[in-house]
Design a protein that fits this description.
Length: 377
């Protein structure tokens, strides 16, 4: 009798465990079936440097982690190409598009075209003058340029005791709003100091143009005390010009020219380790695409009213980007947060944080240039 009772108890327990297991499998299958396999378009500003390639890699990894399909197109810094590509995405039946506009005005109509055809779009890195885009993801280029310029001012005060001398500013494309914001941020700081001779060039972010511009400036105005730039391609062109004239001196040695740039490309990080450049400031571009995709999904599933409101501050408690490990864990630390939601050109702007790069933290894996060493090798 006791033996039969034991057998019965075992059978009952086995049945319960089996039913629970079946239930868990069914629940998991139901949850998996409930996930929609989205098809997104990504229109890149251009793919000519490591920054854009790493940004695109992060987008594809994030889509892969979520079971989504994404197609990338390269606008080659040409508004006409981008407009054609955006229309192509619509014709291919994408669920939504994330993009970095080439020109804030020239691409405004295509943003409306996409929305009118039921395809929401979200911008990152650069923006478009249209309320057809519900939210953009980017940091404050103007404020960042001012922060970088103030690093130069502090250096000159500490080293020379006064803020004076030639400062060469190497910027990108005068037709690009982000590039102009950065140039203006530098200009607004240095214009406060009568002793600074501020020389500005727009180079289209071509290293050889930056080198030639710097070389010519030195011939005309003399050796600079600092070079500031819109990106590290420009700054490296400036350093090449200094090297040609025997003026590239290491940090801490007499005659060192302070080099400060927005960005953190691998080659620039290497030159910082070698002592030739001083400061960088990186965007959280590993998060740009994932944040844009997150909000694109919100718009598709819940509508624009579900987006954070202007005046809100989004923290990592509100939103945490997660995913798989792709040789490195690109989203371990939410360096983009906290982010104020501001208004920009009739739509929301998630004003994300950036990160100052110095010789002390140059090896930090949160700097995109260090991710590039792994992903683009």
């Amino acid at each position: 009798m006791k033996r039969s009772l034991k057998i019965m108890v075992v059978l009952v327990l086995f049945s319960v465990i089996l039913m629970l297991s079946i239930g868990q499998i069914a629940l998991a299958e139901k949850e998996e079936a409930g996930k929609k396999s989205y098809f997104f378009g990504h229109d890149s500003l251009y793919m000519g440097d490591e920054w854009m390639k790493v940004t695109d890699k992060a987008i594809h990894y994030y889509c892969e982690d979520n079971g989504w399909k994404v197609l990338t197109q390269n606008a080659h810094l040409k508004a006409e190409d981008q407009i054609k590509q955006m229309r192509y995405f619509v014709s291919q039946g994408v669920d939504g598009i994330i993009w970095s506009p080439v020109d804030a005005v020239a691409t405004a109509n295509v943003a409306k075209y996409c929305k009118d055809n039921g395809v929401p779009t979200i911008t990152y890195n650069t923006d478009v003058k249209s309320d057809a885009v519900p939210i953009t993801i980017l940091f404050d280029s103007y404020a960042v340029a001012k922060a970088v310029a103030n690093e130069v001012v502090n250096y000159l005060k500490e080293t020379n005791g006064k803020v004076e001398g030639v400062v060469i500013s190497l910027q990108g494309d005068a037709a690009n709003d982000t590039d102009r914001d950065r140039g203006q941020g530098y200009k607004d700081v240095f214009s406060q100091y009568p002793g600074i001779n501020f020389i500005e060039y727009y180079t289209l972010s071509k290293m050889e143009v930056a080198e030639t511009s710097t070389f010519n400036a030195i011939q005309q105005f003399g050796k600079p005390v600092a070079i500031v730039s819109q990106n590290t391609t420009n700054s490296r062109g400036g350093m090449n010009a200094l090297k040609r004239q025997g003026m590239l001196v290491k940090r801490g040695d007499p005659g060192h020219v302070f080099i400060a740039s927005i960005g953190g490309a691998p080659a620039y990080l290497d030159m910082m380790k070698e002592g030739y450049c001083d400061v960088g400031y990186v965007q959280p571009n590993l998060f740009y695409g994932p944040l844009a995709l997150h909000y694109l999904k919100v718009v598709i599933e819940q509508g624009e009213s579900a987006l954070p409101n202007i005046g809100d501050v989004v923290t990592e408690d509100d939103l945490k980007i997660t995913g798989g490990t792709h040789d490195i864990n690109p989203w371990k630390d939410q360096v983009w947060a906290p982010a104020e939601v501001a208004e920009r050109w009739g739509h929301r702007w998630l004003k994300v944080q950036g990160m100052m790069v110095t010789p002390e933290n140059v090896d930090d894996n949160r700097i995109w240039g260090n991710a590039a060493r792994v992903w683009l090798k």
